[in-house]
C-alpha cells in the first residue's frame, strides 16, 4: 500500500464517520485505461478529499495554493501525497510542465479546480492548456458539499456528479480560440451537472476579504 492510498483510506474512515457516505453519480463516465484531468467545482475545503476518496483507487495529484506549503512539515506531507504548490494568480511554466509530467510520465491523474478558488465560480484559463500539452481527456465533476465545518459535522450530505469526458482531439489546432471553447465546455458541464444533481442548487461564493484562505 502506498502512502497516498493509506492517507486516502484514513480520510475515508473519518469522512464517513462524521459526514456519512456522499451521493455519487456518473462513475461509469470514468475512463478505465488512462490517466485524465479531473476538473471540479470548488466550494469548500473538503472538495479535494471527496475527490480522492470517491475516485480511489485512482491516484490523483492535486494542485494546491502555494501558501499552505510555508510550513515545512505540512509541505513534506502534502508532497508525499502527490500534492504540489501553484501560484493561483500566476501559474509558472515550470508548474504547468510538472502537472503534465504527473499525467504522462508518473501515471497520476491530475486534480484541478478551474475556478482557482472557492471565491469564484468562473472557469479560468489553464485546464485546456494542460490538455493541449498532455493530450489527456478532461473529466468535469460537480461537487455540492457541506460549506462549513458545522454542516459537515451535522452530516449534511455531499453530492457529486461526474460528467462525460471532454476528449483530446488530435485533429484540432489547440489555438487560443479552441482553448477558450474548452474552458466554456467545462463551465457548461459544471452548470449541467449541478442542475442534474439539484435543480434548485445555487452557490454564492464568500467574499474574499472576509476569508482567511
From TrEMBL:
Keywords, A to Z, come to: Acyltransferase, Transferase
Q: In Gene Ontology terms, what is one molecular function of this protein?
A: 1-acylglycerol-3-phosphate O-acyltransferase activity
In terms of superkingdom, the source organism counts as Bacteria
SUPFAM superfamilies named in the record = Glycerol-3-phosphate (1)-acyltransferase (SSF69593)
Phospholipid/glycerol acyltransferase domain residues: 36-146
Keyword Acyltransferase in record: yes
Keyword Transferase applies: yes
* GO BP annotation list: phosphatidic acid biosynthetic process
Protein name, entry field:
1-acylglycerol-3-phosphate O-acyltransferase
Organism lineage string: Bacteria, Bacillati, Bacillota, Bacilli, Lactobacillales
Amino acid at each position: 500500500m502506498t502512502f497516498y492510498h493509506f492517507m486516502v483510506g484514513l480520510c475515508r474512515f473519518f469522512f464517513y464517520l462524521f459526514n456519512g457516505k456522499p451521493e455519487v453519480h456518473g462513475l461509469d463516465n470514468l475512463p478505465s485505461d488512462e490517466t485524465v484531468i479531473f476538473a471540479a467545482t470548488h466550494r469548500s475545503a473538503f472538495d479535494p478529499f471527496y475527490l480522492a476518496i470517491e475516485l480511489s483507487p485512482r491516484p490523483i495529484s492535486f494542485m494546491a495554493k502555494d501558501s499552505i506549503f510555508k510550513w515545512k512539515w505540512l509541505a513534506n506531507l502534502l508532497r508525499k501525497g502527490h500534492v504540489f504548490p501553484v501560484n493561483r494568480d500566476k501559474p509558472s511554466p515550470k508548474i504547468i510542465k510538472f502537472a503534465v509530467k504527473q499525467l504522462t510520465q508518473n501515471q497520476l491523474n491530475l486534480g484541478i479546480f478551474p475556478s482557482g478558488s472557492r471565491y469564484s465560480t468562473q472557469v479560468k484559463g489553464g485546464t485546456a492548456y494542460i490538455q493541449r500539452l498532455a493530450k489527456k481527456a478532461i473529466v468535469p465533476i460537480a461537487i455540492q458539499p457541506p460549506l462549513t465545518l458545522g454542516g459537515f459535522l451535522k452530516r449534511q450530505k455531499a453530492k457529486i456528479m461526474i460528467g462525460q469526458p471532454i476528449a483530446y482531439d488530435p485533429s484540432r489546432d489547440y489555438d487560443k480560440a479552441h482553448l477558450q471553447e474548452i474552458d466554456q465546455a467545462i463551465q457548461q458541464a459544471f452548470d449541467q451537472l449541478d442542475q442534474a444533481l439539484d435543480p434548485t442548487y445555487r452557490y454564492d461564493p464568500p467574499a474574499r476579504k472576509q476569508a482567511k484562505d
